[in-house]
Amino acid sequence: MAVLILARLKIASGPRGEGGDIAGSRSDMVPQAARDKLTPCGGAADQHLFQDMTSDTSSEDHKAELDRQLAWFETKLSPRAAKFIGWLRKPSSRLVRIPVAILLIAGGVFSILPVLGLWMLPLGLVLFAQDVPMLQKPIARMLGWIKRKWIERELARSAR
Q: Whole-prediction pTM value?
């Protein structure tokens, strides 16, 4: 029985070329030096993925830009609201900030209901962006755009 299984494995594996490659496969077209760099998933070839996610200095730049934009918007709020938003933005408030952000996003999605509104969605995304690096750049750009439009509108009002 074992001989039969080994014979089937030998037949199923087919003809092999040099280095264990299947004869006539596409790997014959790839130079050996290039094939040496290929590694299975999780190997050294994938290290650039983890490096970009963990030690990306541009993500620190986006975080700083987001903080700068949020600080400007805090100056436009009432003192009580600014104090609350400032507290939510602190790193120590992360356990409160994330659930509040999720609730605001959910409230924005269900904005057709009477109490909830569409204003909740961007506010929830802004709070969520504090902890999700992927959201920091687009949210910072959105806040920058809103800030520019706000300033343009104030200048237009003062020119009247």
A: 0.58
